[in-house]
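<discrete_fold_record>
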Amino acid sequence: MKITNKYVVETLVFFSYVLFAMAWVGGTASMSQIMASMQIDSLASASFISGAVTLAKIVGTFGAAWIAIKYGVKYAFFIASILIVMGLLTPYAPNYELLLISRFLMGLGGAFMIVYFNPIVMQFFSLAQRPVINGINAVAFNVGTAIVLWLMADINQLTGSWQTSLLLFSVASLILALLWLMVQFESQEDPNSTSQSPNGDTDTGESNSQSSNTKAQPQNSKISQPYIQGFKDRFNWIYGFTYSGLLTFYICLFTFYPEAGISQSKWVIGFGIIGTIAGIIYSKNQPLRLPVIRLSGVMITLNIIGLSFIEQPWLQTLSAITLGFFIFFPITALVSIPHELPNMTGERITVTFSLFYSISYLFSTLILWVFGKLVDINQGDYTLSFIMIAILSSTFFIGGFLLPETGKQKELSACEA
């Protein structure tokens, strides 16, 4: 039996990443139990438990394109899924070292998987459908995070312990990984090809012709060349820079903000889902990508300041709600930009998102450690750390003036047609 329906494929992709989020954030939500069981009393040391995942994402997102080119996207996604399943070691790790290894492997799988969203979307969905599907995929992590932050206590009560809950998340990931092997997936390389998915949807262009040319190339050259071109592409560096500050805040949000006594962080996650839905609708009807990124960049920084420094609980909650909306409102537009660049191929977009996430996660991992270190140095005072995060979040606004406006290209091509 083969899975060819594009919506079934998208369902597998979406829930695979939802479960990754539940396993990762579920481990973070159980941080106090983990720290107590292993006698960890330094916040900087504890940050390495979450940092192991982000460190893995640096390595994983950078190497994801290499895996996809070597083994194909279908089996690369399966490898990612199996690595996520390695999170089952987390709740029963007997020591700190094995715990870090477990978190690292799980993070590596998540890093691979998030890069493979884009070639999968290109394979199964037309250009007109991609903003919606990209937006849905963008909210997958948020859905998993929201489930854990809002319902983890209930889930633990149902399963009997936090260890059992994390184990069940990993078992569910294994089931989806095995189902993924049934997906019929055929790679496509030519940017001018007729992009027909197994279910019959087509994009514009001519027939595949590039594969015969690539067969003659040495394997090492075939794999390394896209990376070399990717490093030379100025767009990839600007793209990673734009997201880096926002990603840093987002990781700190559910890693450190609850420890700082700011419980409103869960509202950021919840209203992020609403923001994503609004962003999907907006981006589907509005071809311009940069205005929403710039507006959201301003709102993000202002509301991070409000969440971090306002003492009145109701104003903190309002800042959290607004922040959650505007963090995810522009994400559909942001992830649509590479899809709308000229001559984009499955291979090129894999490398683009590989570098996008590795650059931003490298930045985030370093800042995550600095954040915890500043808190330790200041005897538990979060003020300097919060100031740092607020300043760094402005990269999203700045990037809105550096990225290309692909929406205009889309309008021109429609007029020419």
User: Anything to note?
Assistant: The first helix runs from residue 6 to 29.
